[in-house]
Amino acid sequence: IGFQITAWAQARAAAEREGTLLARLHEEAEENVGYYDFILGIYNRNNAARSEAIERFVANDLEGADREALVDAIASSGILPAAAPPRGVFDEIVSTGQASTIGDAALREALASYWASVEFLQGQIDYFRLVQMRVPDLSEFEFYRAEYDPQSSRQLRRIIDLEAAAQSEDFLQYLLHANNRARALSDWWQETQDRAREMCAETSRLTG
């Protein structure tokens, strides 16, 4: 009876510890989903603005355009943030050897799938950063220049002669390829968020 009581107490304590860990993992999963909401919000706004810029250049129609917004949209394709979602609880699970025992099979599969997706996404970001170093840069076009702007957060203002840019086939090709890369990355960010939502659903199922 003594051994049974001890085993029962140990099992109960282990279950309580796992319950606490799962609750923390669920909180981190929700933070991950929110992280992607923020990043994808930026990507979606930039993609829409860049599409407007491309359509205007293709149609050679700059009338009524918000010129500053167009310049920002053109420059946005070079923004390549790292995939760095919160992962402290996940790292704790891995470092303590609980990755193969936490929750149940469905949770472990969702957990592994999500973090594999994060790793893939970061690999694509690293690849596009290398590609970006090997293709023409915006600063190489003669109708582009940068000015000192003490009022901006980074003290730099981009200036593009939009009329000249609209007449340049090389610039249109640059913009089309840059837009393609940005949209490919936004698709991978979205896929990773989908995996994060699946992980969040599994932690929610187990924790209520």
General description of the model:
It is a single chain. The protein has 208 residues and is mainly α. 72% of the residues lie in helices and 5% in strands. It is built from six helices and two strands, in the order H-H-H-H-E-E-H-H. It has a two-stranded antiparallel sheet. The relative contact order is 0.17.
For the terminal residues, how far apart are their CA atoms? 34 Å
Q: Give the strand order, joined by hyphens, for the main sheet.
A: 1-2
SSE order, one letter for each helix or strand: HHHHEEHH
**Tell me about the biggest sheet?**
2 strands, antiparallel
| Strand content bin | under 5%
Q: What is the averaged pLDDT score?
A: 91
Radius of gyration from CA coordinates: 24 Å
Architecture blueprint of SSEs:
Elements: H1 2-59, H2 67-75, H3 88-95, H4 105-134, E1 144-148, E2 156-160, H5 162-166, H6 169-207
Helix pairs in contact: 1-2, 1-3, 1-6, 4-6
Short structural summary:
This protein has about 210 residues and is mostly helical. It has helices at about 1-60, 65-75, 90-95, 105-135, 160-165, 170-205, and strands spanning about 145-150, 155-160.
